[in-house]
Amino acid sequence: MRNVLIIGAGRSASSLIRYLLSKSDEEKLHLTVADLSLDLAKAKTHNHPNATPLALDIFNAEERKTAIQNASIVISMLPAHLHIEIAKDCLEYKKHLVTASYISDAMQALNDEAIKNNLIFMNEIGLDPGIDHMSAMKVIDEIRAKGGKMLLFESFCGGLVAPESDNNLWNYKFTWAPRNVVLAGQGGAAKFIQEGTYKYIPYSALFRRTEFLEVEGYGKFEAYSNRDSLKYRSIYGLDDILTLYRGTIRRVGFSRAWNMFVQLGMTDDSYVIEGSENMSYRQFINSFLPYHPTDSVEIKTRLILKIDQDDIMWDKLLELDLFNPNKKVNLPNATPAQILQKILTDSWALEPDDKDMIVMYHKFGYELNGEKKQIDSKMVCIGEDQTYTAMAKTVGLPVAIATLLILNGKITTPGVQLPIKKEVYEPILKELEEYGVIFNEQKVPYFGYNPDLF
């Protein structure tokens, strides 16, 4: 039996583990599912004869090294900053490594040694990053193979609530890490390129500059810009492209509503609010409003945000129970962002029967034989339940498929890498279709821009 060590049995590991266990007899696999919580590891393995749950503290070097030494290949589903010690152990014991996380500078620094030892350190092989890379490179390579020149590439992705579970005014629930949602867009201006001109959107304006998208059968969406759309320009071979934009998908109206929190200062994570533990929700929002001897917190909020009481934006705030004087924050030494996250989690947590949804949308503009053309590629994935979510499927399945391809010698290029080579993306995308992760590609009129307006 070939021993696959999976470190981290959190929400993203469910579909990954199910896939590998379904292939375990045929592929002669034994899974060691390691987590700090033995109960969590047991819950994910379901007493399967080809799986062993393991309690593992990755900060215990002896435990960690022993587990890695006994593996044929290692999958790390831990947060990105925890991969590096695992990667160093994989080098020491000559083990391939697969993660869904962005390649850090520390990970990239191991590239030469990985190549020297003929080891594959596959990263960014989840959803975003991951499926976005693979589905984009497939079409870009096909366009280039025909002799086309890329002019425009726009890519959007979002984790949302499925239509049948969409029952609040925000048309949104937390399907993944809430903290990432609250802090989205912070840390610098969003940067992209349109018609050869660099464009920047400061955080204060980010959620009022959106692009609209239509997905057949699912209606209209909006997208706001990611912080750095140009990160993959050279990696994708798009250094000369005129337009390059990456964004996050939400339902129409979400961004305008979210901007209220930004303008009030409630998404700030840089300072602690005094007395936060005993603060009520009403006191929290009032702490961002000017003092007035007679106006209520509600009136002050509407005045500062310039919204009327019959505005849907006001209804969205009321739905969150923001003005409740009896609900307590119960978080000591909390930042505004942490308190906002707590308030939103009260309203946006998925119910037991709720399903999530992933939407991905690419636009490819190119020139071929003097004619400008465009391909739009769209993918929608709906989760099964709270365990096998669309997010877990789209993050975990590419990791699992890549792991098997590496074990079976189908992926052979060594080094620290992301899945942009044909030997990687072609078989993974093909197999993902069997699990309902399908991109529908359409030829559409070239979107283009008017350069005079830029």
UniProtKB/TrEMBL annotation:
GO terms for molecular function: saccharopine dehydrogenase activity. GO terms for biological process: lysine biosynthetic process via aminoadipic acid. Residues 4-120 form the Saccharopine dehydrogenase NADP binding domain. Residues 126-437 form the Saccharopine dehydrogenase-like C-terminal domain. Keywords: Oxidoreductase. Pfam families: Sacchrp_dh_C (PF16653), Sacchrp_dh_NADP (PF03435). InterPro entries: AASS (IPR051168), NAD(P)-bd_dom_sf (IPR036291), Sacchrp_dh-like_C (IPR032095), Sacchrp_dh_NADP-bd (IPR005097). The keyword Cytoplasm does not apply. GO terms for cellular component: cytoplasm. This is Saccharopine dehydrogenase, NADP-dependent.
